[in-house]
Design brief:
about 90 residues; five-stranded mixed β-sheet; about 35% strand
């Protein structure tokens, strides 16, 4: 199975609800490389690299979000394949 990149922004009530930790926990459990961070505009940004099935599982989880959160949209962003994808998955500040 091929490996793929994903770069998305998640909008809604996604800051202050444990969204970054939720994302990191799932990504590490799946063995995905990458990062998650809060943005100043209130969105959460996620960049990930892994097997296509792993990335689909992560994206499905992002659409649900953690308890206490409310996801409005998961929108694809341009992919920068030069971006460092740390493994294990990390929270960027």
């Amino acid at each position: 199975m091929s490996e793929v990149f994903a770069h998305v922004e998640v909008t809604g009530r996604v800051q202050g609800v444990g969204f970054r930790e939720f994302t990191r926990t799932i990504a590490q459990r799946l063995g995905i490389a990458g990062w998650v961070r809060n943005r100043e505009d209130g969105c959460v940004e996620v960049a990930a690299f892994g097997k296509a099935s792993q990335i689909e599982t992560l994206l499905a989880a992002l659409r649900r979000g953690p308890a206490g959160g409310s996801v409005h949209e998961v929108r694809k962003l341009p992919i920068d394949e030069q971006d460092l994808m740390p493994k294990p998955f990390v929270i960027r500040r």
